[in-house]
């Protein structure tokens, strides 16, 4: 069964938004249409079988003047949230005969009775009250172009709406627009809309997206009405006209109209957060590049470095949290510190501390929480991760690549791949899934048991790696084939013997350093070994004063810098890091 949303334009010269959800709530189609023929053509593939088409336009209009009973009833509930409906009557030329929505429904062969049990139906919906009810809004989002609303406000409000829609992925029923579970074509279309909003420079560019986003809302209301009929209201009836919308929550109250625009107000803070979200996302990318560069330069082995800017909907939920009726975050934009999140996944537990020490050397650490130790201090097994709150010195001159970072902080989560797997699975089950109350204690026990086993496995992996270091110290130096280049595999085996106490490096880093070795004119492990014998390793280590266990590739990188000096810095493969290499070289020569 498909759930189709139609944001129908009043006239055929204006675009109509179309959206289609599959039975699981995945977006499978979103587009614009021009005239009735175009609408019918684009929807035909989805309405041949069982379907529900939700139309944002009148389907039944019998009254000559004023409101339909449906508008009067809906306005009594939603007008105070700015979500009231405009009057609909037959005095309007476009409604004097058969309304356009009803005409299209007829062409598609759809029953427009909201109480019908037929397999192929159409209903009238209205996005604004639906948004108020679904997202618990104090007032409607102001993304429609009206007098007094500037471009920045329209874009901010539309971005907020799109983010709120994405947050329904874990709702019931779900709306899946992004992520692994999303339809590929639908997800690409949705990302294109999101990109268009962020890149827009004129109101007309937002209008192109607005109709399609409204159509997604309509489609979801159709899905919601089908799956949650007890939470759905039908204002009016088939005789006089009707509007279907989610039920207004009883405890929801309107946001006061006149109040100071203070950033301590959650609504104001959320809108400011949405307005600055594009810049925050760029800052997140810069933090990822910074942390990655620090780890790569140190030669620490890790699985991934990823980042995310907290979504607007997640920020809104967190900003509104209360304890005993009091808000937790008095100044949400200042007090919520995980607006930018960076995650570093390592292979073994000892590398977690290495990353912590390294970041402590390179950036400012404002807070350090060992979540695993806190859990252990409580005498239990569970969530284990190191959380750092980091930033760069605002007084220092940031490189152009990191120009957005001096005024921002990021929460860096560091954990092993096993700890990460446990945390992700536990979060999905406990917070996104549904555990029957009678099984909560059983699930708690099983999660605790799994956490204990993973802690043991982390320790064993560390032991295995340490034993391998010892076992590979006798790696042969001779070539294993006639290829003049040193292969990454051969180089890894060689370095395991050369630097027995060093940690493993990332696989791609062995290939990278091998290309630098070739650029130096070294074509065999024997030549490399001979060149490294000229390096005073003891003095080199003293001057570098490693505070973390550098990987084998970093050790080799420093040795080649020691041996070749400026010639190594000037290699073409080092052009992107020449300045940092010169700083290292100066450190090596400081006492020379």
How would you describe what is shown here?
The strands form four sheets. The protein has a five-stranded mixed β-sheet with strand order 3-2-1-4-5, with helices on both faces. A hairpin with a 3-residue loop joins strand 6 and strand 7 (241-246). Helices cover 47% and strands 13% of the residues. With 592 residues, it is of the alpha+beta class. The chain starts with a strand and ends with a helix. Residues 472-483 have low confidence and may be disordered.
CA-to-CA gap between the ends?
A: 77 Å
Helix content: 40-55%
Annotation field: number of helices? 22
As a percent range, the share of strand residues is 5-15%
Radius of gyration: 30 Å
Lateral strand order in the biggest sheet: 3-2-1-4-5
Largest sheet: 5 strands, mixed
- The shape is elongated
Structural class: alpha+beta
Oligomer: single chain
Low-pLDDT sequence parts: 472-483
The number of distinct β-strands equals: 14
Average predicted local confidence, pLDDT? 85
């Amino acid at each position: 069964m498909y759930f189709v949303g139609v944001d129908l334009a009043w006239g055929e010269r204006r675009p109509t938004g179309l959206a289609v959800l599959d039975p699981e709530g995945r977006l499978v189609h979103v587009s614009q249409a021009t005239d009735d023929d175009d609408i019918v053509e684009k929807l035909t593939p989805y309405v041949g079988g069982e379907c529900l088409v939700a139309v944002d336009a009148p389907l039944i209009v019998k009254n000559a003047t004023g409101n339909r009973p449906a508008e009067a009833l809906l306005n009594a509930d939603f007008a105070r949230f700015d979500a009231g409906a405009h009057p609909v009557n037959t005095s309007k030329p476009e409604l004097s005969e058969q309304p356009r929505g009803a005409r299209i429904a007829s062409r598609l062969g759809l029953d427009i009775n909201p109480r019908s049990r037929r397999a192929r139906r159409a209903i009238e919906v209205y996005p604004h009250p639906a948004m108020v009810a679904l997202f618990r809004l104090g007032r409607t989002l102001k993304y429609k172009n009206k007098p007094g609303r500037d471009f920045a406000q329209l874009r901010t409000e539309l971005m907020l709406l799109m983010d709120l829609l994405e947050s329904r992925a874990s709702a019931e029923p779900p709306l899946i627009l992004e992520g692994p579970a999303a339809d590929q074509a639908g997800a690409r279309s949705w990302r294109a809309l999101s990109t268009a909003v962020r890149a827009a420079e004129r109101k007309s560019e937002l209008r192109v997206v607005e109709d399609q986003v409204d159509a997604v809302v309509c489609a979801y209301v159709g899905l919601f009405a089908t799956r949650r009929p007890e939470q759905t209201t039908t204002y009016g009836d088939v005789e006089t006209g009707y509007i279907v919308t989610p039920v207004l929550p009883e405890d929801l109250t309107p946001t006061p109209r006149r109040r100071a625009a203070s950033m301590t107000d959650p609504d104001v803070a959320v809108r400011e957060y949405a307005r600055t979200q594009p810049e925050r996302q760029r800052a997140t990318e810069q933090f990822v590049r910074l942390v990655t560069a620090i780890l790569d330069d140190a030669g620490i082995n890790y699985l991934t470095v990823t980042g995310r800017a907290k979504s607007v909907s997640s920020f809104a939920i967190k900003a509104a949290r209360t304890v005993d009726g009091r808000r937790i975050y008095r100044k949400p934009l200042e007090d919520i510190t995980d607006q930018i999140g960076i995650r570093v996944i390592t292979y073994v537990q000892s590398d977690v501390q290495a990353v912590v020490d390294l970041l402590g050397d390179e950036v400012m650490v404002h807070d350090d929480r060992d979540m695993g130790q806190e859990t252990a201090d409580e005498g239990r097994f569970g969530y284990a991760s190191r959380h750092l709150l980091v930033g760069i010195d605002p007084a220092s001159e940031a490189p152009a690549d990191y120009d957005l970072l001096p005024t921002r902080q990021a929460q860096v989560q560091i954990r092993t791949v096993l700890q990460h797997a446990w945390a992700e699975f536990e979060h999905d089950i406990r917070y996104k899934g549904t555990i029957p109350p009678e099984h909560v204690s059983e699930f708690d026990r099983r999660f605790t048991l799994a956490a204990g086993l993973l802690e043991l496995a982390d320790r064993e992996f560390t032991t295995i790696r340490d034993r391998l270091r010892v076992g590979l110290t006798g790696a042969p130096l001779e070539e294993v084939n006639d290829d003049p280049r040193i292969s990454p595999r051969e180089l890894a085996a060689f370095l395991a013997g050369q630097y027995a106490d060093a940690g493993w490096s990332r696989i791609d880093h062995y290939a990278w350093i091998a290309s630098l070795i070739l650029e130096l004119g070294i074509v065999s492990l024997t030549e490399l070994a001979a060149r490294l014998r000229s390096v005073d390793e003891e003095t080199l280590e003293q001057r570098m004063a490693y505070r973390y266990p550098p990987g084998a590739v970093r050790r080799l990188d420093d040795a080649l810098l020691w041996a070749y000096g400026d010639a190594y810095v000037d290699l073409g493969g080092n052009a992107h890091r020449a300045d940092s290499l010169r700083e290292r070289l100066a450190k090596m020569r400081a006492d020379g």
